[in-house]
Write a structure and sequence with these properties.
By secondary structure, the protein is an alpha/beta fold. It has one domain: Rossmann fold, CATH 3.40.50. The protein contains five helices and six strands, in the order E-H-E-H-E-H-E-H-E-H-E. The protein has a six-stranded parallel β-sheet with strand order 3-2-1-4-5-6, with helices on both faces. Helix 5 links the parallel strand 5 and strand 6. It starts with 7 loop residues before the first strand and ends in a 10-residue tail after the last strand. It binds nicotinamide-adenine-dinucleotide (NAD).
């Protein structure tokens, strides 16, 4: 019996079978979890194809974390497929090219804003959007990168990752109020070492 037997988990950020989230979803299923994925924009059809390569093909919900309508429809769609969830994996990040690669001093605010909204603010958007389908004990996990140091080409994505860490801490603090709903919630960010970093994440 796997350690996630009977758990239901929403996994975001699966784009290809090289996506970290793909392997999280695969392992979660191997450990007995029921998984649902989200897919974004033009990548949605790719995510749908990749979902079929998991040990147990699973549904894919369309979600652009900057789209209020998608966020509002998320919980009802989760409810339809899984009822409620026990975990969320936030594996979403994006920065425009101008915000990476050594251009730190010249990046326009709009591009910085995009990086921070998609990569950090989205943790709040996603977590709040799912609150109504939380099971009695929920874990939210974000994928982090060392926010304590400045790396030469990570630039505004590095700033967005530091914001993701801070967002995690603030959400944990806000969750104290949510605990009064008799739900226990854990928030963790997982520091990853650089593996194969797509240019935009
Ligand atoms: N690859 C690494 O070495 C590394 C290191 C540290 C942290 N991370 C983090 O791990 C996570 C996954 O990255 P990855 O390396 O698997 O890359 P990836 O490109 O496969 O994953 C990024 C995902 O973000 C999604 N996304 C982008 N904009 C979105 C939006 N507006 N709405 C919804 N989804 C959106 C993409 O569709 C994609 O699925 C990211 O948070 C990344 O910063 C990766």
């Amino acid at each position: 019996m796997g350690i996630l037997e009977g758990k239901k988990i929403l996994v975001t950020g699966v784009l290809t079978d090289a996506s970290i989230a793909f392997h999280i979803a695969r392992l979660a299923q191997e450990q007995g979890a029921e998984v649902i994925l989200t897919g974004f924009g033009r990548g949605l059809s790719l995510t749908t194809r990749i979902a079929a390569r998991l040990p147990h093909p699973c549904p894919v919900i369309e979600l652009d974390v900057t789209n209020e309508e998608h966020l509002q429809k998320l919980a009802p769609q989760i409810k339809e497929h899984l009822g409620q969830i026990d975990g969320i994996v936030h594996a979403i990040a994006f920065a425009p090219e101008t915000a990476l690669g050594g251009n730190f001093l010249n990046t326009e605010w709009q591009d910085v804003a995009t990086a921070v909204q998609v990569s950090a603010f989205s943790l709040k958007s996603l977590t709040v959007a799912c609150k109504s389908v939380f099971g009695p004990s929920v874990s939210v996990v974000g994928l982090d990168f060392d926010g304590q140091q400045a790396f030469p080409i990570y630039d505004w994505m590095g700033v967005a990752k530091a914001a993701l860490e801070a967002t995690m801490r603030y959400l944990a603090e806000k969750y104290r109020d949510w605990e009064t709903d008799r739900k226990s919630t854990r928030l963790n960010s997982s520091h990853l070492k650089l593996s194969r970093m797509p240019s935009s994440a």
